[in-house]
Amino acid sequence: MPQISQKGKRTPESPIRKLVPYAEIAKKNGVHVHHLNIGQPDIKTPQVALDAVKNNTIEILEYSSSNGSEVYREKLVKYYQQNNIHVNKDHIIVTTGASEALLFTIACITDSHDEIIIPEPFYANYNSFAIAEDVKVVPITSTIEEQFSLPKISDFEKVITKKTKAILICNPGNPTGVVYTKEEIQKLKDLVLKHDLFLIADEVYREFVYDGEKHYSILSESGIDQHAIMIDSTSKRYSMCGARIGCIVSKNSDFLFTIMKMAQARLSPPTYAQIAAEAALETPKSYFTDVVAEYTERRNVLVKELQKIEGVTVFKPKGAFYCIASLPVNDTDHFAQWLLEKFNSNNETLMVAPVSGFYSTKSIGKKQIRIAYVLNKKDLVRAVEILKLALNEYNE
Ligand SMILES: Cc1ncc(COP(=O)(O)O)c(C=O)c1O
Predict the structure, then answer these.
(1) pTM above 0.70?
(2) Is residue 233 within 6 Å of ligand 1 at its C-beta?
(3) Per-residue confidence (pLDDT) for residue 277, from 0 to 100
């Protein structure tokens, strides 16, 4: 029988999606499942983006340019300017989501067995992308006790080897909700300059920053043009995950030239979705003011309710729309499955993401779950109530 590759075998299942079959069985049995597991916002996609697709008169759905529609990239330049990121359209390559941007980026800067340092817990798919490209993830653990702030620079220095090619950060962070300060970004800048590494920043949650804090992009820093690579996406910003439009932004011309060869090989990003993404840039500022206000309230309600449960520790996230809670159980993988298979309260249960899959270091994060606060406040309160009842009943 033909054999599957070792890379294929080593690729982990998504901690966000692996419990789906259990959720489906629960639903077939008439149980309502509150989905706290996935970052699929319930916020409406801006109408202007949907209308642009509905109302256009394309007769031939052609390939677009491999680096993405020029008009779209020109408009993106203006959007970035408003966010204190000064680039031109040739610094941008449009991709099929941030996912493709990450795959291409890792492929462009690493060879087999090279290493990328990532503060953990991190977006779980970084692991899968790295394995697919035969790259080793070197984690540095950030902790809930220290509010998931950037680990000490000396911790990074300890693990830098000849094989280290890049440091990858997610800012604002999924799953942690951390927002790195300007000072933290500057420390990383000094580090990558000292060791001549790439600094990749996944900034797909740029807009979702709370309590008056400001997001600080790595591209707002001067002096790291050859090192900085920014990954972006429209998925979360405009609640249009299904459009599959992201981009890579960098000023390093060798890097862009190499990415472009990959972009050409896969031909082009989706045409209709770029039309939607271009129109979405017209979204009024008030949309974001409302969305950020809504997420702030949800976060506040969620954290307040979680803090009422004995034995639960929670860090109040500063950005994105995820919250990590540490539970008084030993294995949240088991607990999360049990919630779907064995538990319900008035025919309702929860689907949460166990956090162990967001760590690269084995056996940590076993007590933690990630909650995506993508439900309305009433449902969030009920969800935490169900969690409390479940914790009382759960017997490991
Ligand atoms: C941190 C982070 N990066 C990248 C992605 C993938 O984004 P896209 O939908 O643009 O592929 C996600 C999706 O949840 C994410 O949370």
Answers:
(1) yes
(2) yes
(3) 98
